[in-house]
Amino acid sequence: MRMSTAQLLRTILILAVASVSRDCFSQSLSTFELRHEKLTEISEIPVSINLDEITYLHDSVLVLYEISTKGKRQIPFQIEQGNPRTLTFITGYGFAQGEKITYELVSGENFQTETVGSSLSDGALVISSGGKNLLRYNFKTIYPPAGIDTAYKRSGFIHPLWSPGGQVLTRIQPPDHYHHYGIWNPWTHVLFRGDTVDFWNINSRQGTVRFANFVSVVDGPVFSEYSVLHEHVVFRPGGREEVALNELQKVRVYRPANDKSNFIVDFLIQLNCAGENEVRLLEYRYGGLGWRTTGEWDNKNSTVLTSEGRTRKNADGTKVLWCVVQGATGNDHAGVVMMSHPTNYNHPEPLRIWPEDQYGRGDMFANFSPTRDTDWLLVPGKTYVLRYRFLVFNGHTNVVKAAEAWKHFAYPPVTVVTKTE
Fold this sequence. Notes:
The chain is mostly beta strands and 421 residues long. It is built from three helices and 29 strands. The chain is 9% helix and 43% strand. The protein has an eight-stranded antiparallel sheet with strand order 15-16-17-18-28-24-23-21, covered by helices on one side.
């Protein structure tokens, strides 16, 4: 049914009055700026500020604006409940050009919608954005193919990790290493109660790492995040089991960049002794956060580049801030910038990178291994934290982009807040 001219004018007037009313009832709470070095390659990064230093208002009545030479626009944000609360948003393009950008937080009507979400299906949690899957966390126990020793079963791992373009970047249960599970975090040589235990090579039947429970799942306009409890289990004679380590693993996936060329995954790993016995992670050439890459990659179509300028020829065993692993994926190109946080144990962290001639064709495996050249003693009553960031991308990534990405992971922009009286 068509509207008359009078009805149309009345509708426009009502909308205009509503808009003016909303602006009239909006109140500026604070403005803030980000102090940073000028970037040339990275255009969007996540930034977090202490919200409780600004206001105790509920997030449902807060609106965030970005003010630049291009004008004033409302931008998405997400609040993490805690003490204090944290407000997180993603910087815009002007940030990368060194332009002065001001952010304003006001009280008003909030019409944000969820843009990064998760869903549970068939023993897995899948995080997606804009109709594209980004990451799948498998909490159900996955068994190896028929005819293969069932000791290779495993839960609590990521596969697939997709590129922004939808290419699979991980692999599980390859015939050469049935115990490889996409992205996972076991330790290989562990001293516990007088015995050495191998949680990595699970076919040894000494131990395993398994999913125990979900702690939380959060979706929102800026990121989706899950927290899970993993148990590092020692197998004892007679079928008995004993938990040596509890691992709280938090994985946060940020919404893809506006040009859909990349997205960020943050890992927060907290380790605690499960009982009154200490755990010593013994020196070994691999252990910790590992990534078995797509089976498409070999020594002809993939490359490695580190913060120290090393390549696949000489990166293994070196200590780095970051490592880029990338290669051809069908008719496209994709990869990951793996980053270690400065607060991690034994940082810069040693790398385990498979040699170019691995199994003849040069299959690819990458691992941050903090115990590669030293032991790590974990004592009861203390929490030990490891932080990592993956920049997952399509296209090609160079030294400048990787270095800038690590810098803003390790040393986030300084926020200067001015409260409005």
